[in-house]
Automatic annotation (TrEMBL):
The keyword Mitochondrion does not apply. GO terms for biological process: purine ribonucleotide biosynthetic process. It comes from Cellulomonas cellasea. It comes from the Bacteria. This is Phosphoribosylformylglycinamidine synthase subunit PurS. GO terms for molecular function: ATP binding; phosphoribosylformylglycinamidine synthase activity. Gene3D superfamilies: Phosphoribosylformylglycinamidine synthase subunit PurS.
Length: 80
């Protein structure tokens, strides 16, 4: 996700359109990107930590983006 201090024109445009489309309960929108990583074997804390590290150091631009969630697709708990 873009860091809070980074301008997000797409999120601002979506936030302006939502009330016109009947979604007045939302006051802010931030637009980001998502990566899906696949691997073989069970989901462990080590795998999730490796995914977070890849996100922070390889898949994102740490100057302007934050990694906000790393989780297993079938898990209900989000690991921050």
């Amino acid at each position: 996700m873009p860091k809070p201090e980074i301008l997000d024109p797409q999120g601002k445009a979506v936030a302006g359109a939502l009330p016109r489309l009947g979604f007045a309960q939302f006051t802010s929108v931030r637009q980001g990107k998502r990566f899906e990583l696949e691997f073989e074997g069970p989901v462990t804390d080590e795998v999730l930590a490796a995914a977070r590290e890849a996100g922070e150091h390889v898949l994102s631009n740490p100057v302007i983006e934050d990694v906000v969630a790393v989780y297993a697709e079938d898990a209900a708990q989000v690991t921050a």
